[in-house]
Structures are given as structure tokens and as C-alpha cells.
Design a protein that fits this description.
Length: 337
């Protein structure tokens, strides 16, 4: 056939510790897992036009694509949370022109960069056609970062279709269109994002500069052991171990995540809403004992299942749960229309 009619899409999530890829095929409204892969690679946010960083990342990604036998070039990628400014604002239902002005005004208030240096985008979240009030999701990303990402994907031989914030991909893979209010907590290597979702829409998205690697460094420093051993301690013992000292060190790093989550719950409940669940994602969420540690918030807290809406080969049944947390974003990206 002359034109490619591939219904396959590739989701790429470049995290600070790991690059993840997932290829899905859409078939009669269903998603089939074609392949996935991840590789440890300390990536730097490409905020400067650093040719070395761009070509290095492209090289690592290209090798990963070959190893995972990825067959499509159509890629949807996420933008790292720590460089994206996300805001959801309430507005009266304005005309498009009025909306544009109002959004630029709002962006000037919260984006700590000159507006000429960022790419602004927004989407209107309307609960019903007749609603007098609308919510607008505004994102601002430094334009150089977008340019560098696009350059990197081209170098890796891919055809970028869209760049998206992590929160939207997480909602797609973990929640679909569920209507209740919940918080997705993605614990990565150096970042944790808290995303409050209600009626299928993102309401609040926050990024905290702590993650699994922060916990590992805490253990390594306090026990004076190598980062490698500290990582092993963390994975083996988690928050439920017998050694008194280790869990204490971990809790120091985790406290801020739990406190911020508790704050979001309070803010939302003060406005009359009810949070029904805390859903964990990100490989940092594999920390043993994490859900129990959050239990004093009084809300059901558990690991999400990003493969809920995906069909896959039976033989992967035991392997997938061990990697699924880390794949949550890449999966959601590949599910994008
Ligand atoms: N079994 C496990 N138990 C506890 N922690 C784990 C486990 N497996 C991986 N981790 C931790 O998960 C973290 C990496 O998570 P992930 O791959 O989601 O991060 P990332 O996306 O690369 O980083 P970021 O989102 O911060 O940019 C590491 O800190 C690692 O130590
Ligand atoms: Mg991540």
C-alpha cells in the first residue's frame, strides 16, 4: 500500500532516570500491546540547545527502539513535569478572542519566564454545553525545550505527532473516563507529581522535587553505604522493614509527598468535593509499604493499573506488573487519539 495505514502509536516518556517506550495498536476501539521497553539513562532536561545532550539521548532512544522491535514512527511524547507550568482556572464562558486575552493575562501571573520564551496552549473543559462557567487548562513550556525535543526525535528517526503533559497521559491510562474525584501520585526518580482529577478533568497538578532517588540518597548518607546498596535496601525493606533506622530515613523524604497530598485533599474537601482514592504511579511507587504509609489520610490508597484498558499476550501476565508503574505515562501517551 502506498500510504501507511498503521494504527500503531508509540508513547515515549523520557524520565530523569529511565526512558520508557510503549507501542499500542488500536483495533475496533480496543488497545493491543505490541511492544514496550525501558532503559536506564540519566537524561537531562533539554532546556539548552546542547547538541551533545540531544544526540546522546537520540542515540539511547534509537537503540531502545531497535531492541524493543518498535515498528511505528508515530510518536507521542511527554514533556518533563519540572519544566511545564500547568494551571487550571475558572472562567465565565467567553468568546474565543476574549478567552485568548484572559489566558495570556493569567499566564503572565504564574509563568516565571517572559511570555515570548514560552509556548502557551490551553484547552477548555466544559462540563456541559450550557454551563455558564468553564475550566481552562493552561500549559506553558519553554519554546527551546520543545524545539530540542523535536530535534531529538527527528535524530532518533521518529515522527513526533504531539507533545503532552504527563498528567493527561496518566489520566488516560489509569482512570479512563471515571467521574469521581481522585488524586494520581506519580513517584519518579527525582520528581513526584500530584494530579487531582474530577469528572475526568485535571483540576490541580503539582510537581515536587523529590522521588525515589532522593530516598536512596538519604539512606546512603545516613548509613554511610554506597548508592547501589542503599537502593537494594530500599527495594527489599521499604517502609515495613525491621531495621528501625532505615524506615525513619525514608519517611523524611516521603513526608513532603504525603503532606502535599493531604493538603490537596483538604483544599478539595473545603470546596465541597470528596476525594475517593489515591492512585500511585511511577516506579518509585513500588516502595514496599507505601500504601500503608498513606493510610492515615483516611482515603483508599493503592497502586494503579495502567494496563486496565489494554489487551496483551497471556505470557506477559507475570512480567507486566513488575514494570507497569513505570510505564503508566508512556501507555497513556500511546493511547492518545
Ligand atoms: N521495586 C522498587 N521499589 C522501590 N523503588 C523502586 C523500585 N523500582 C524502582 N524504584 C525507584 O523508582 C525510581 C524511578 O522511577 P521512574 O522510572 O518512574 O522515574 P523517572 O520517570 O525516570 O523519573 P522522573 O519522573 O523523576 O523524571 C527510582 O528512584 C527507583 O529507585
Ligand atoms: Mg517519570
Amino acid at each position: 500500500m502506498f500510504f501507511s495505514r498503521s494504527k500503531s502509536k508509540l508513547g515515549v516518556d523520557i524520565g530523569t532516570s529511565t526512558i520508557k517506550v510503549v507501542q499500542l495498536k488500536r483495533d475496533n476501539g480496543k488497545f493491543l500491546l505490541e511492544t514496550y521497553g525501558m532503559v536506564n539513562a540519566a537524561s537531562q532536561v533539554m532546556s539548552k540547545a546542547d547538541v551533545d545532550v540531544i544526540s546522546q539521548t537520540a542515540g539511547v532512544l534509537k537503540t531502545l527502539l531497535e531492541k524493543a522491535k518498535v515498528t511505528t514512527k508515530k510518536v507521542i511524547a511527554s514533556l518533563p513535569n519540572n519544566i511545564v507550568f500547568v494551571s487550571v482556572i475558572d472562567m465565565p464562558a467567553l468568546s474565543d478572542k476574549e478567552l485568548k486575552n484572559a489566558i495570556e493575562w493569567e499566564a503572565r501571573r504564574y509563568v516565571p519566564l517572559p511570555l515570548e520564551e514560552v509556548t502557551l496552549s490551553w484547552s477548555v473543559m466544559r462540563e456541559s454545553q450550557t454551563a455558564e462557567k468553564i475550566k481552562v487548562l493552561i500549559t506553558a513550556v519553554p519554546t527551546t525545550v520543545i524545539e530540542n525535543y523535536l530535534r531529538m526525535f527527528k535524530l532518533a528517526g521518529l515522527d513526533p505527532q504531539a507533545l503532552e503533559i504527563e498528567a493527561l497521559a496518566l489520566i488516560r491510562s489509569l482512570a479512563g473516563s471515571r467521574q469521581d474525584a481522585f488524586i494520581i501520585v506519580d513517584i519518579g526518580a527525582r520528581n513526584t507529581s500530584l494530579n487531582l482529577v474530577d469528572k475526568g478533568f485535571l483540576r490541580i497538578s503539582r510537581n515536587l522535587p523529590v522521588g525515589g532517588d532522593t530516598i536512596t540518597s538519604g539512606i546512603a548518607q545516613s548509613l554511610k553505604i554506597s548508592p547501589g546498596r542503599a537502593e537494594q535496601f530500599k527495594m527489599d525493606l521499604g517502609l515495613s522493614g525491621d531495621l528501625q533506622q532505615i524506615p525513619q530515613v525514608m519517611k523524611a523524604s516521603l513526608e513532603s509527598i504525603k503532606n502535599e497530598t493531604g493538603q490537596l485533599v483538604k483544599i478539595y474537601e473545603a470546596s465541597g468535593g470528596t476525594i475517593s482514592e489515591i492512585i500511585f504511579a511511577g516506579s518509585g511507587a513500588y516502595l514496599p509499604g507505601l500504601s500503608v504509609y498513606f493510610s492515615d489520610l483516611g482515603i483508599k490508597a493503592s497502586l494503579g493499573n495502567p494496563f486496565k484498558f489494554i489487551e496483551y499476550d497471556e505470557r506477559l501476565k507475570t512480567a507486566l506488573p513488575k514494570v507497569s508503574m513505570g510505564l503508566s505515562i508512556a501507555l497513556g501517551l500511546a493511547m492518545r487519539e
